[in-house]
């Protein structure tokens, strides 16, 4: 059974990601953990020293409100999807989102986190909001970020950019393969080079990846002398992609591509779901 964590702040963006998750895994036996965290604005040293009095009352109200909204979401999801393969558990927590996600991933052996994301207001080159960035960087399990306003489409065409600097393993791409098999998807493996032949290590990793993808429809591409954001953008113009997948290898192009405030002055606009897989699992 897949264990999937669904953080929510009760926004339309978060609800859209939850709906996406239930559609994506409609054919799989899953347990979904609906998580809401809260830290009241008035939370300060005085409250940490005492849970009594006015501040304690405020937190109690917020806690009850959180639980009620989670229960309401669970009820609506059961009515809307009516899927016997799906189970739910709600978690309401007075804590920071990233800290609680880390605890839950460890405690419940979570397989995947699916969350909604928005770029920072007024900053077109910033792909994700702060919470999503922190979750991706710290998570020990894959994270699927669903852009605001993207409604579910079957991921028939999946783009997988790579520099072949990752020690690929079957465990690493397990979630990826579950999605591919469920929708009979085609994977487009995109390698961007800069006029340099692959090293011996890269060729070895490429061969391992090809072996892991033996039973999967896939096509490999090599693009020369283009910035990576540009190569991905141009590929999406020529082939309609419904899902972008990358492995978060700190020694590859991933961090430079996605965690810089400005990406080489090239507008890289994420408008499809993005699955980020940790290099070490």
What would you say this structure looks like, in words?
By secondary structure, the chain is of the alpha/beta class. It has two domains: 2-147, HUPs (Rossmann fold, 3-Layer(aba) Sandwich); 157-273, Rossmann fold (3-Layer(aba) Sandwich), CATH 3.40.50. The chain is built from nine helices and ten strands. It has helices at 12-24, 45-49, 53-81, 97-108, 130-138, 174-183, 200-212, 228-238, 254-258; strands at 2-7, 30-37, 86-93, 112-117, 143-147, 157-161, 186-193, 217-224, 243-248, 274-278. The chain has a ten-stranded mixed sheet with strand order 3-2-1-4-5-10-9-6-7-8, sandwiched between helices. α9 links the parallel β9 (243-248) and β10 (274-278). α4 packs parallel to α5 (130-138).
Helix/strand layout:
Elements: E1 2-7, H1 12-24, E2 30-37, H2 45-49, H3 53-81, E3 86-93, H4 97-108, E4 112-117, H5 130-138, E5 143-147, E6 157-161, H6 174-183, E7 186-193, H7 200-212, E8 217-224, H8 228-238, E9 243-248, H9 254-258, E10 274-278
Parallel strand pairs: 1-2, 1-4, 2-3, 4-5, 6-7, 6-9, 7-8, 9-10
Antiparallel strand pairs: 5-10
Observed structural traits:
single chain, 281 residues, Rossmann fold, 2 domains, ten-stranded mixed sheet, 9 helices, 10 strands
Major beta sheet, strand line-up: 3-2-1-4-5-10-9-6-7-8
Give a count of the beta strands, DSSP E runs of length 2 or more. Answer: 10
CATH class of the largest domain: Alpha Beta
Q: Ranges with pLDDT <50 over ≥5 residues?
A: 120-127, 261-267
Ends distance: 18 Å
- How many discrete structural domains? 2
Helix content: 25-40%
Q: What is the count of DSSP helices, taking H or I runs of 4+ residues?
A: 9
How much of the sequence is in beta strands?
Answer: 15-25%
The CATH homologous superfamily of the largest domain corresponds to HUPs
Gross CATH architecture of the largest domain: 3-Layer(aba) Sandwich
Q: The CATH topology of the largest domain is what?
A: Rossmann fold
SS-based class:
alpha/beta
User: What is the CA-atom radius of gyration, in angstroms?
Assistant: 20 Å
Largest sheet: 10 strands, mixed
Mean pLDDT: 84
Shape: elongated
Order of helices and strands: EHEHHEHEHEEHEHEHEHE
